[in-house]
Amino acid sequence: MIFKGVSKTFLLINEDQYNTIGAFWDEMALLYGLENLQGLGYGWNGNTMEYAIGLKNGEIAGANVNITLPDSDWMTAKGKTENLKELYDKIYKDGALTYEIETFYENGDCVVKYYRNCEKR
Description:
Largest sheet: 7 strands, antiparallel
Number of helices: 2
Helix content: 10-25%
Low-confidence stretches: none
Oligomer: single chain
């Protein structure tokens, strides 16, 4: 699977990424509609992470990344956007992620698909 989107780097200090990535989502949702988008978190590096937003179907204008993602072994968590931090607290109890794909809905629901690059023994 290939994710094509507009990517930016975000700081992870004091969990401010919830606000800054949220503002990125707001900006893109005005252009494309919230439910047409998906966000990809990747490239965690110390106090920063990469985050891209792309269309669920088609290619977003200004796309600056094409990321090849695994086709299988994804996990899924569902919840409410207003409780996103708590949802991630549960997800991260089992360790760091390699990728996360977020989708948000007008009714306040959200879905997080996540992938951990664990070596199989």
